[in-house]
Design brief:
It contains 7 helices and 3 strands; from the N terminus they run ααααααβββα. It is α+β, with helices and mostly antiparallel strands and 216 residues long.
Protein backbone atom coordinates (compact mmCIF):
# COMPACT_ATOMS: atom_id res chain seq x y z
CA UNK A 1 0.00 0.00 0.00
CA UNK A 2 1.67 3.24 -1.16
CA UNK A 3 -0.08 5.40 1.42
CA UNK A 4 0.98 3.12 4.27
CA UNK A 5 4.57 3.08 2.99
CA UNK A 6 4.65 6.88 3.11
CA UNK A 7 3.75 6.62 6.80
CA UNK A 8 6.55 4.12 7.44
CA UNK A 9 4.19 1.14 7.55
CA UNK A 10 4.06 -2.01 5.43
CA UNK A 11 0.81 -3.64 4.35
CA UNK A 12 0.78 -6.89 2.36
CA UNK A 13 -2.14 -8.60 0.65
CA UNK A 14 -2.88 -12.16 -0.41
CA UNK A 15 -4.56 -11.76 -3.80
CA UNK A 16 -5.93 -15.30 -4.12
CA UNK A 17 -6.78 -16.28 -7.69
CA UNK A 18 -6.36 -12.68 -8.80
CA UNK A 19 -9.13 -11.31 -6.54
CA UNK A 20 -8.77 -7.81 -5.13
CA UNK A 21 -11.14 -8.00 -2.17
CA UNK A 22 -8.44 -7.65 0.49
CA UNK A 23 -6.78 -4.50 -0.86
CA UNK A 24 -10.22 -3.02 -1.56
CA UNK A 25 -11.26 -3.62 2.04
CA UNK A 26 -8.02 -2.10 3.33
CA UNK A 27 -8.38 1.05 1.23
CA UNK A 28 -12.03 1.48 2.24
CA UNK A 29 -11.25 0.97 5.92
CA UNK A 30 -7.93 2.81 6.34
CA UNK A 31 -7.89 5.41 3.58
CA UNK A 32 -11.51 6.39 3.06
CA UNK A 33 -10.69 10.09 3.36
CA UNK A 34 -8.15 9.74 0.56
CA UNK A 35 -10.79 8.30 -1.73
CA UNK A 36 -13.49 10.74 -0.65
CA UNK A 37 -15.51 8.02 1.15
CA UNK A 38 -17.38 9.27 4.23
CA UNK A 39 -18.74 6.03 5.65
CA UNK A 40 -19.30 2.50 4.39
CA UNK A 41 -22.53 2.19 6.36
CA UNK A 42 -24.12 5.33 4.85
CA UNK A 43 -23.06 4.74 1.27
CA UNK A 44 -25.66 4.23 -1.42
CA UNK A 45 -25.37 2.36 -4.70
CA UNK A 46 -23.99 5.35 -6.60
CA UNK A 47 -21.35 6.00 -3.94
CA UNK A 48 -20.44 2.33 -3.93
CA UNK A 49 -19.89 2.43 -7.66
CA UNK A 50 -17.65 5.47 -7.34
CA UNK A 51 -15.71 3.72 -4.60
CA UNK A 52 -15.13 0.70 -6.74
CA UNK A 53 -13.95 2.83 -9.67
CA UNK A 54 -11.63 4.85 -7.43
CA UNK A 55 -10.26 1.71 -5.83
CA UNK A 56 -9.59 0.11 -9.20
CA UNK A 57 -7.82 3.31 -10.33
CA UNK A 58 -5.78 3.43 -7.12
CA UNK A 59 -4.77 -0.20 -7.45
CA UNK A 60 -3.87 0.24 -11.13
CA UNK A 61 -1.62 3.21 -10.38
CA UNK A 62 -0.03 1.36 -7.45
CA UNK A 63 0.87 -1.58 -9.67
CA UNK A 64 2.33 0.73 -12.34
CA UNK A 65 4.31 2.91 -9.95
CA UNK A 66 5.84 0.11 -7.89
CA UNK A 67 6.32 -2.82 -10.23
CA UNK A 68 6.17 -1.87 -13.88
CA UNK A 69 7.38 1.63 -13.07
CA UNK A 70 10.67 0.50 -11.56
CA UNK A 71 11.25 -2.02 -14.32
CA UNK A 72 10.50 0.63 -16.96
CA UNK A 73 12.87 3.11 -15.33
CA UNK A 74 15.71 0.60 -14.97
CA UNK A 75 15.36 -0.58 -18.56
CA UNK A 76 15.19 2.98 -19.91
CA UNK A 77 18.33 4.06 -18.03
CA UNK A 78 20.17 0.90 -19.07
CA UNK A 79 19.33 1.50 -22.72
CA UNK A 80 20.37 5.17 -22.61
CA UNK A 81 23.70 4.34 -20.96
CA UNK A 82 24.58 1.20 -22.91
CA UNK A 83 23.60 2.59 -26.33
CA UNK A 84 25.05 6.06 -25.61
CA UNK A 85 21.71 7.75 -26.27
CA UNK A 86 21.39 11.45 -25.35
CA UNK A 87 18.91 12.23 -22.59
CA UNK A 88 16.87 14.30 -25.04
CA UNK A 89 16.29 11.13 -27.08
CA UNK A 90 13.18 10.37 -25.02
CA UNK A 91 11.65 13.64 -26.23
CA UNK A 92 11.66 12.61 -29.90
CA UNK A 93 8.05 12.31 -31.16
CA UNK A 94 8.69 9.13 -33.15
CA UNK A 95 10.29 7.40 -30.15
CA UNK A 96 7.31 8.25 -27.98
CA UNK A 97 4.92 7.21 -30.76
CA UNK A 98 6.68 3.87 -31.08
CA UNK A 99 6.29 3.13 -27.37
CA UNK A 100 2.66 4.24 -27.42
CA UNK A 101 1.95 1.60 -30.06
CA UNK A 102 2.99 -1.00 -27.49
CA UNK A 103 1.38 0.46 -24.36
CA UNK A 104 0.00 3.99 -24.48
CA UNK A 105 -1.19 3.97 -20.87
CA UNK A 106 2.20 2.93 -19.54
CA UNK A 107 3.99 5.57 -21.61
CA UNK A 108 1.65 8.35 -20.51
CA UNK A 109 2.07 7.33 -16.89
CA UNK A 110 5.82 6.66 -16.75
CA UNK A 111 7.81 8.22 -19.60
CA UNK A 112 9.07 11.70 -18.62
CA UNK A 113 8.40 14.56 -21.00
CA UNK A 114 11.87 16.05 -20.56
CA UNK A 115 15.37 14.68 -20.82
CA UNK A 116 16.28 16.65 -17.70
CA UNK A 117 14.16 14.27 -15.64
CA UNK A 118 16.00 11.27 -17.03
CA UNK A 119 19.31 13.01 -16.35
CA UNK A 120 18.26 13.42 -12.70
CA UNK A 121 17.29 9.73 -12.58
CA UNK A 122 20.69 8.76 -13.94
CA UNK A 123 22.49 10.83 -11.31
CA UNK A 124 20.47 9.17 -8.55
CA UNK A 125 21.22 5.73 -10.00
CA UNK A 126 24.93 6.57 -10.20
CA UNK A 127 25.08 7.70 -6.58
CA UNK A 128 23.16 4.62 -5.43
CA UNK A 129 25.51 2.23 -7.21
CA UNK A 130 28.52 4.18 -5.95
CA UNK A 131 27.37 3.84 -2.34
CA UNK A 132 26.91 0.09 -2.84
CA UNK A 133 30.50 -0.23 -4.07
CA UNK A 134 31.81 1.85 -1.17
CA UNK A 135 29.95 -0.38 1.28
CA UNK A 136 31.26 -3.51 -0.42
CA UNK A 137 34.84 -2.25 -0.20
CA UNK A 138 34.46 -1.17 3.41
CA UNK A 139 32.96 -4.47 4.54
CA UNK A 140 35.82 -6.49 3.04
CA UNK A 141 38.72 -6.86 5.47
CA UNK A 142 41.12 -7.87 2.69
CA UNK A 143 43.56 -5.70 0.78
CA UNK A 144 42.30 -3.76 -2.23
CA UNK A 145 44.72 -3.72 -5.16
CA UNK A 146 44.13 -0.84 -7.61
CA UNK A 147 45.12 -1.07 -11.26
CA UNK A 148 45.11 2.01 -13.46
CA UNK A 149 45.77 3.09 -17.03
CA UNK A 150 45.87 6.44 -18.79
CA UNK A 151 44.88 6.92 -22.41
CA UNK A 152 43.52 9.57 -24.77
CA UNK A 153 39.93 9.26 -26.00
CA UNK A 154 38.89 9.99 -29.63
CA UNK A 155 37.70 13.46 -28.53
CA UNK A 156 41.18 14.16 -27.11
CA UNK A 157 40.35 13.74 -23.42
CA UNK A 158 43.08 12.22 -21.26
CA UNK A 159 41.26 9.67 -19.09
CA UNK A 160 42.55 7.67 -16.15
CA UNK A 161 40.74 4.38 -15.58
CA UNK A 162 40.96 3.01 -12.02
CA UNK A 163 39.87 -0.50 -10.98
CA UNK A 164 40.01 -2.12 -7.53
CA UNK A 165 40.67 -5.87 -7.21
CA UNK A 166 39.80 -7.52 -3.89
CA UNK A 167 38.35 -10.55 -2.13
CA UNK A 168 34.91 -10.05 -0.60
CA UNK A 169 33.54 -11.53 2.61
CA UNK A 170 32.38 -14.65 0.73
CA UNK A 171 35.97 -15.35 -0.31
CA UNK A 172 35.21 -14.46 -3.92
CA UNK A 173 37.58 -12.46 -6.11
CA UNK A 174 35.96 -9.21 -7.24
CA UNK A 175 36.88 -6.17 -9.31
CA UNK A 176 35.06 -2.85 -9.51
CA UNK A 177 35.52 0.18 -11.73
CA UNK A 178 36.06 3.14 -9.41
CA UNK A 179 36.46 5.94 -11.88
CA UNK A 180 37.23 7.34 -15.30
CA UNK A 181 38.86 10.61 -14.32
CA UNK A 182 39.98 13.25 -16.75
CA UNK A 183 43.63 14.29 -16.44
CA UNK A 184 44.40 17.96 -16.94
CA UNK A 185 47.99 19.01 -17.41
CA UNK A 186 50.99 16.72 -17.13
CA UNK A 187 50.65 12.94 -17.55
CA UNK A 188 53.44 12.41 -15.04
CA UNK A 189 53.36 10.33 -11.91
CA UNK A 190 52.72 13.26 -9.57
CA UNK A 191 49.56 14.25 -11.39
CA UNK A 192 48.30 10.67 -11.69
CA UNK A 193 49.20 9.93 -8.08
CA UNK A 194 47.08 12.78 -6.76
CA UNK A 195 44.01 11.52 -8.62
CA UNK A 196 44.61 7.96 -7.41
CA UNK A 197 44.88 9.25 -3.86
CA UNK A 198 41.62 11.19 -4.19
CA UNK A 199 39.71 8.19 -5.56
CA UNK A 200 41.00 5.84 -2.85
CA UNK A 201 40.01 8.30 -0.13
CA UNK A 202 36.63 8.86 -1.78
CA UNK A 203 35.83 5.14 -1.66
CA UNK A 204 37.15 4.81 1.89
CA UNK A 205 39.78 2.05 1.70
CA UNK A 206 42.96 4.07 2.22
CA UNK A 207 43.97 1.86 5.19
CA UNK A 208 43.64 -1.38 3.22
CA UNK A 209 45.41 -0.48 -0.03
CA UNK A 210 47.55 -3.31 -1.35
CA UNK A 211 49.62 -3.25 -4.54
CA UNK A 212 49.16 -0.68 -7.28
CA UNK A 213 49.67 -1.92 -10.84
CA UNK A 214 50.18 0.21 -13.94
CA UNK A 215 50.80 -0.80 -17.54
CA UNK A 216 54.40 0.40 -17.81
Amino acid sequence: CNTCMQKGQTTLYAMTNGTTSQPKTHIRKEHSSLLGIESMETSNLETGTRRQQTIHESLRKAVISKVAGQSFRDTLLGWLADANIPFTGIEHPLFRQLLCLLNRELVQELLPASGDTVKAWMKIEFQTEKELIKRELTQSSYKKHPTFDLWTSPNQYALLGIIAHFVDNRQQLQFRLLGLRRILGSHGGENIGQILNDVIEEFGFFDTVGNLTADN
